[in-house]
Amino acid sequence: MTPTPLPTSAPQRIAEVSRNTAETRITVRVNLDGTGQAKLHTGIGFFDHMLDQIARHGMIDLDIHAEGDLHIDGHHTVEDVGIAFGQAVHKAVGSKQGICRYGHAYVPLDEALSRVVIDLSGRPGLIMNVPFKSGMIGTFDSQLAHEFFQGFVNHAFVTLHIDNLRGENAHHQAETVFKAFARALRAALTPDPRAAGTIPSTKGSL
Questions:
Q1: For residue 18, which of 56, 66, 53 has the smallest C-alpha distance?
Q2: Cα 21 to Cα 23: distance, rounded to the nearest angstrom
Q3: Separation of first and last alpha carbons in the chain
Q4: I want to staple 78 with a disulfide (CB 3.0 to 4.6 A). Which of 11, 51, 144, 202 is the partner?
Q5: Mapping DSSP to helix (H, G, I), strand (E, B) and coil, where does residue 201 land?
Q6: Which are the contacts of 1, defined by CB distance < 8 A and separation ≥ 6?
Q7: Is 76 strand, coil or helix?
Q8: What DSSP assignment string belongs to 78-138?
Q9: Is pLDDT above 50 for 5?
Q10: Phi and psi of 39, rounded to 5°?
């Protein structure tokens, strides 16, 4: 009798990326199949809080250390973290065989409600409609949320639609956006047991 082969374990979806420029020095490590653990140091407290939402609600282990020119402002640091995070996700997800590819989520926080839809399409694109009620959230410039997501989509090669449907408090608006992004990304990265080993595209590649 031929013995039944032991099941092979799924490949680990782990990656590390470093980005060093005249403006920033950044290291990002991701485990897409983690438990939501985060080690974050960007020098921008509210940004760390938002990145923690991605880890916790996306069930991604996330380790980010960034040193940037914060004496100027937070722009380069936030944008470059988005770039490095996108590169790390792209590297970790690999060929995209057997994943769901698409994900969406609605997340409320008190009066605020946001919707995020993502496609791990291989084509970068961002549509973001978030009318922040305040230009600053603590020391975080609310415009930098767009810069983070633009950096991410350009280097993760994903299509991302972000809509804040309502909200009066800018902190709540931002938090619902980052939490919904995390949940949508988690859904898109989830293995589809009915499509194991196949690329979720009629083209045969993503």
A1: 66
A2: 5
A3: 41
A4: 144
A5: coil
A6: none
A7: helix
A8: HHHHHHHHHHHHHHHHTT-TTB--EEEEEEEETTEEEEEEEE--SS-EEEEE---S-SEET
A9: no
A10: -125, 110
- By the 8 A CB rule, do 163 and 148 touch? no
Q: pLDDT by residue (tens digit) across 72-129?
A: 999 999 999 999 999 999 999 999 999 999 999 999 999 999 999 999 999 999 999 9
CA distance 88 to 80: 12
Q: What is the pTM of this model?
A: 0.93
The sheet with strand 38-41 has its strands ordered as 14-20, 24-31, 61-68, 38-41
In the 8-state DSSP scheme, what is residue 191? B
For residue 69 the two structure tokens come to 């020119």
Q: How far apart are CA 61 and CA 31, in angstroms?
A: 5
Gyration radius from the chain CA atoms: 18
Quote the Cα angle for 137-142-143, to 5°: 160
pLDDT digits (tens, 9 = 90+) for 194-204: 888 888 888 87
Choose among 165, 185, 190: nearest CA to 118: 185
Query: What does the block give as tokens for 130?
Result: 């978030």
Report the 10 Å Cβ neighbour count for 205.
8
